[in-house]
Design goal:
single chain; alpha/beta; TIM Barrel; 8-stranded parallel sheet; 7 helices; 8 strands; 39% helix; 19% strand
């Protein structure tokens, strides 16, 4: 089985995927595995508190295994103060419900880490779509958090980064890309010089550490 920690599509054959929803949170009642979150790109300044209320209502369902993707993005048009408020509220809710966080972060890693520290976060955190350097990867890993990689693993620079982190802190994903998770595993296995089957076994262990009720 291939584990896809962050996808915008339903699971495919031989795949356990967490489908990320940034709207229509009621869909999380349908069969599947979901994360739901207020994405910084789509925050509605007028209605975000109402959206957060819906998120809280829907996140109690057992098929919602994580809060997110949520976080901070310095490239998008959303006001940064608003982003901080919305992200902070979701960190608080994740800790209240004991559900992991899946983080969207663009050029704001220090700010995200500071908020997690300030809120005394104790739930697992996965930074999805990581595409930065080994120094920042090490800083995140030091906090006990996880990194997820996707199509970026086609690049030699990211292959070097994935080799620098402990296996037990690694996840793989397809995000919104229309490619197979099997192909992402092939990229990662090549970078790590290990059989795909060994990588599958390791990521299954990682998943059960973060999501103990996965596959049940």
């Amino acid at each position: 089985m291939f584990i896809n920690i962050h996808s915008h599509y339903p699971s495919q054959a031989n795949e356990w995927a967490i489908q990320s929803l940034y709207e229509d949170f009621g869909r999380a009642t349908e069969p599947g595995v979901y994360s739901i979150g207020l994405h910084p790109w789509y925050i509605d300044i007028q209605n975000w508190k109402a959206q957060l209320s819906v998120l809280k209502e829907q996140s109690v369902h057992k098929q919602v295994v994580a809060i997110g993707e949520c976080g901070l993005d310095k490239v998008c048009q959303t006001n940064m103060e608003l982003q901080v408020d919305v992200f902070t509220a979701q960190v608080q809710w994740a800790n209240n419900t004991r559900k992991p966080l899946i983080i969207h972060c663009v050029r704001a890693f220090d700010e995200v880490l500071n908020i997690l520290d300030k809120e005394k976060n104790t739930v697992p955190v996965i930074f999805h779509g990581f595409n930065r350097n080994a120094l920042l990867a090490a800083k995140i890993i030091e906090k006990g958090y996880y990194l997820s990689f996707g199509t970026q693993l086609q690049n030699e620079s990211m292959q070097s980064v994935v080799r620098s982190i402990p296996f037990e802190k690694l996840f793989l994903e397809t995000d919104a890309k229309e490619l197979s998770i099997e192909l992402v595993y092939t990229f990662a296995a090549t970078a790590l010089d290990m059989p795909v089957e060994s990588l599958q076994n390791q990521l299954k262990k990682n998943t059960l550490t973060v999501f103990p009720s996965a596959f049940s």
